[in-house]
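> @MW can you paste both from yesterday?
MW: sure, first one:
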Amino acid sequence: MKPSFDLLQSSKSIFTSEKIAGASLLLNEEEQGLQKALNVIIPTMLYGLAEKAATWYGASDIAQRATDAYKQGMLDDTATALAEGTGSYLFLLSDMFGRKSGEIIETIATYSGIKYPSVTALISAALPAILALIGKQKTKNDANSTWLAALLAYNKNSFANDLPEGIKLVEEEEHIAEEHLEQEEKKKLSAGWVSGIAMMLLSVIFFGWLILNKNQPDNSDIKKSEKLLNKSVRETTVSIPNNR
């Protein structure tokens, strides 16, 4: 079902001319530059939220953050966010875009002509305000994280298409998927190395024991140890992932 709430335009309406004028004084930046930066920041943040909400955990996390931001009055109190900064929301930026976060801020600064710290300050104000707007709608509709995920997913293409011409800050979905797959493969490879080292250590311990006890006539203990080693090796080998 098509959501009736226009999240993109509603997010843009948060930053009125009065708020931009206040931000200009606070950040010592030209209003035009701040507006240009917001023209990139708002659709980029919304796209990042849509990406994160594509998983159950991500949608639940955003839903909780949105509710908290709304209750804390972040929808209207953008001046405080600009003045004090909101580190937890910058952490969310990193969570959404990973290693591209710094590149995104730098690109926005270059495009808009404002300073890097000013872009960071704008994101610190825009992201919680957008979340608070979502939280307001979520509360109004008595909705859950599934509603939120559907709202963001439906508008995802419009977020990407709203970026100014020549600005491409969001990765193609297949590239994001490849990065996630690469991370998973690294985890599996790491687990395989740990298991392999454990197996080697077991072998060293066993043969060391054989050397120390080679002159003893009773072979029953050796046979028991061989069985124990074989069992340990089999269990350890099972834990080594198949990376093919």
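MW: second:
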Amino acid sequence: MYGNQWWRRLWRAAISTLALLISLLVTVNGSVYAAEKPTEEQQRQADALDQAAEEFYQHVTSQDLVKALESIQKVLQHFKALSYEGLTQVEGIHALAECVMDARLELTKASPSMEALEESSARLRLAADSLAHSKGALWQQYYKILTDDLEKIGQASLGGSGEKVASAVRSFKLHYERIRPAAVIVREPSEISMVDAWVSRLEAVSEQFEKGSSDEMTGIAEQGTGVIAALFGKAKETTVMLPIKGYSNPWIWTLFIGGGIGIALAYTAYRKYDAEKRIRPI
């Protein structure tokens, strides 16, 4: 556990300052995990899990917790019965498992928070749907929601209101975290890591935001449109170069940024190796 925490701290420290540079210098291609075509049995099982997750979501939103408890048990049964080989990577299985466990934990609390329960049920619904539908998944509908959030962040920063910026960033993060498990199921781990790093940078800058320093906040929001477009597969083969003012030697910057990318890939590889050691076949 300590080793994993050490790697996480190293990752955050190194990437938080490089996130914008890396995300804008690499080629944006919206890479998708090349999942194998599911067998008929796998598709049937995935559809059953998706249906159970949908029922759970509906029961939660109607505040019928008795039926919601029955539905989450069905979700858990289908989750255990499903064969994931070829459908998603280790990270995708873990993301879906966390959604199931989080929803069950929220539901079985002595005094469950309906707000937290509705949010966990929404994440589970989107994740299960992502696994069952290789095309037209529900989480893809959040593209406009996230881009609207980014526009609000930019507008609030131009207005110089730290409170409005913080509110807009919270809204963006809430929506991103809602669709993140669904994205993890179908996207490459390195791509998710890049988006996570950019979100961490966005939060850090927003926390330090003061009136009169809107240029940096607005720039990050504008750069975020490209990051989100790549996540949703909206941008293809688009390379955006970040201008570096007052520096005449591009080779040092190339090595600097390349080192950041290396750290990102090394951390992703470590997580996958660590996960494969601990995960047990279902």
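> thanks! Residues 11-31, 236-254, 278-282 have pLDDT under 50 and may be disordered.
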